[in-house]
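Tutorial sheet, problem 5. The three components below are modelled jointly, 841 residues in total.
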Amino acid sequence: MSNETLLSVKNLEVTFNTPKGDVHAVRGVSFDLGRERLGIVGESGSGKSQTGRAILGLTAANGKITADQLQFHDVDLANLSPKQWRKVRGARISMIMQDPKYSLNPVMTIGDQIIEAYREHHKVGAKEARRRALEMLEAVKIRDPERVFNAYPHEASGGMGQRVMIAMMLIPDPELIIADEPTSALDVTVQLQVMAILDDLVRDRGMALIFISHDLQLVSSFCDRVLVMYQGHVVEELRASELHNAKHPYTKGLLNCLPKMDGDHSDLPILEREASWAEG
Amino acid sequence: MIEISKLNAWFDDNHVLKDVDISVPTNGSFGLVGESGSGKSTVLRTITGLVDDWEGNILVNNKELGPKRDKTFYRLVQMVFQDPFGSLHPRHTIDRILTEPVNIHGLGNSDARVVEALNQVGLDNAFRFRYPHQLSGGQRQRVAIARALILEPKILLLDEPTSALDVSIQAEVLNLLGRLRRELGLTYVMVSHDLAVVAHMCDDIAIMNHGRIVERATATQLADGTLEHPYSQQLYKAAGGYDRAVVDSFVDWD
Amino acid sequence: MNTQTHISKPGLKNWLTSDTPQSRFQAQCGRTWLGWIKFTENKLAMVGLSIVIGLILVTIFAPILAPYDPLAADLTNRIQPPGAEHWFGTDQLGRDILSRLIYGAQYTLLIVGLVAITAAPLGLLVGTAAGFFGGWVDAVLMRITDIFLAFPKLILALAFVSALGPGIENAILAIAITAWPPYARIARAETITVRKADYIEAARLQGTSNLGLIIGHITPMCMSSLVVRVTLDMAGMILIAAGLGFLGLGAQPPMPEWGAMVSDGRQFLLEQWWVATVPGLAIFVVSLGFNLLGDGLRDVLDPRGGD
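Model answer (structure tokens):
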């Protein structure tokens, strides 16, 4: 794992203009990302997803992104034309969304969608693309790639659908993957299996990964480094292995309020929020 | 309070419950754990009469249930659904959601009852005339619990009541449910995919897979990690977070 | 749309947008207010609304607005072109076209109003019942609906009017009979999407009866699409009513119904264009108004469109 910086985010702000006034979803988020696995953790409304979307320029139309720096290698993500975005999105940075049901086109076979994703960024013949797509399905541990290749999304289970999504997002060989709650809709064991696939692929291909999730424990057991977000701010950044040494009361509170399998039925500690956390 | 024996249920041609036996004492708390498709929610839905095609014996409060549930049944048994965004009518105010059951059962004094129910679940009276979309997930789930409580039932069926909530909110709702059971002497049957939640809430636990109970355990057994069935062990390990070696040991139970 | 009596009170906006309403009434008003704000952002919808409000006002104030008696014939002033005395000219019997137009507005409003309050509830009832109960109830009700849908509306209305005899009441009845099937279809589709929703099942577990579920829980979810569809259909109803009038099967002379007026004017269309054109334009403008209004309502009410 080299220390070269792939993505540098400085003072990222995302503001939404709504009928009820401006909503600051992300406030002054800064981090540098090398070829590593970074977890962004927070509860709903913490701005974790909006951070991921802003990096890919996928913020909704009523949202405004400002940043002192949003640098991906040699590309300044803050000032890209739609045409330039197409060269980055998918090809160099990919995103895996939470629910494959809504991310896959229901009227196209899975194979065709993977091929389309590949040929969008690589000029190859139909035969070669098909070979690559089948290879990719095998890489995400799908047992019968030929069958899945010809299947429609509704014929695949949740875990299978998410594997297909990973295959689709990884086939153009991006340098950075942003995974936004990629496994939250899945059963625990399937979730871990899908994460293992992601783990192996990211490791083998030397990709960087931003893993966005609400599950602090899961993320810290999977990533190298974790950013904990609260109301748009990063309240704590720590090495995943140092989770038990978390200093911020919010991080500690999040860990404490999880029910444990210790046979104890007494009340769980409640997370008492303090206004000062949201001032960063 | 609840005795279920040899319960079988079908969705069309799918046999979704296979010989399920459950026994819950008064003021007890029983947990059903399993992954999607295990049939854990179907058990609750069969008890409440939302499943048509079933066979077996269900005794609630020493009374055998027939194919139809009457009004008195719903005063005894209530259910809290998983998704607080889907279980409240989007066009009804909280007030209407809570008043309606009172009127249907002709309990009278609905004003005071609504105020009390909101109070019980720790919601301020200011929420009374809001619409569900003006509430957060945790607040909605509190309203759903208030709606279940307003008929003063003895049994609460909880279908993943916290799985759609943030962990900090989950803790608050679990504490609330624990307190209500102590104070009102309620009997719980709780369904969850999360072993830790069930271990925290329940005294007796059954682990389900593909419509069958594969193992029964007490909270203490779960705390000690002494589960026997390989499927239960796998679930137990999965609850520990991501570990590459553990994942490789997983077996598909399809 | 909102309560004009309160408009001068300070803090009304706060009262309406309050996140903690103190009563059912305030909660309802707040919701309506937000819808209204969204609606006013759509300029074309506002144009549509103005036209419809204009139509209602004209109906109410017809006796004041109309310069002449709409039925008074003046054979010495036959077919006068538009001018200072008769703004829109006169027809073949010397009647003032503007006055006839103004009095005719009430028939248009009567037709769309009566059709809306008869056809929409009927369609709603049939559709929700079919969607809610499913099975043979659904099969029977929907096949009946399909039979009605199989005929072109105008033809079916023509058949009914010929059977019932010409006249505006029968025309309204005929249009209502032909108008309900699409509403039943919409209501059924909406019912099917919500009948398995958790909140319906939750209500069932509270002991709510089937009738209570349909009226209290399912109908409100169908209302938005239905209101939009009815508004959009009003243009079509006006045209069918006009068509029946034109064919002599609707309003009978000397009733100043717009369709009948177009019909009367068609014999002079080439030389005295205004006799047919002016009521034609009125039909066009009001139809357009309802259409724009319906589009605007769709943006506000359609649950799929927004939050």
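Marking note: The longest helix of chain B spans residues 167-184. Full credit if you identified this.
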